[in-house]
Amino acid sequence: MTKITFEDYLEDIKEVIAECGVSPILIGFSMGGILSQKLAETVEIAGLV
Questions:
Q1: What gap in Å lies between CA 49 and CA 47, rounded to an integer?
Q2: What count of other Cβ atoms lies within 10 Å of the Cβ of residue 39?
Q3: Mean pLDDT on 4-17
Q4: Domain locations in the chain?
Q5: Cα(15)–Cα(1) distance, rounded to whole angstroms?
Q6: What is the pLDDT of residues 13-38, one digit of tens each?
Q7: What number of H helices and E strands is found in the chain?
Q8: DSSP label at 4?
Q9: pTM of this structure
Q10: Please, which residues bridge with residue 26 across strands?
Q11: Residue 46 or residue 1, greater confidence
């Protein structure tokens, strides 16, 4: 079985953001909130909810 890490989730989201070509507004709850906050440290975003 493959183990998926927190960093794997971050890299996947970074790839999606790069493909979109615009600064996103990130919305997160629970683990999504933690991921959003961590992404905001390294990725240019338009907003965080």
A1: 7
A2: 19
A3: 96
A4: 6-48
A5: 24
A6: 999 999 999 999 999 999 999 999 99
A7: 2, 2
A8: P
A9: 0.83
A10: 48
A11: 46
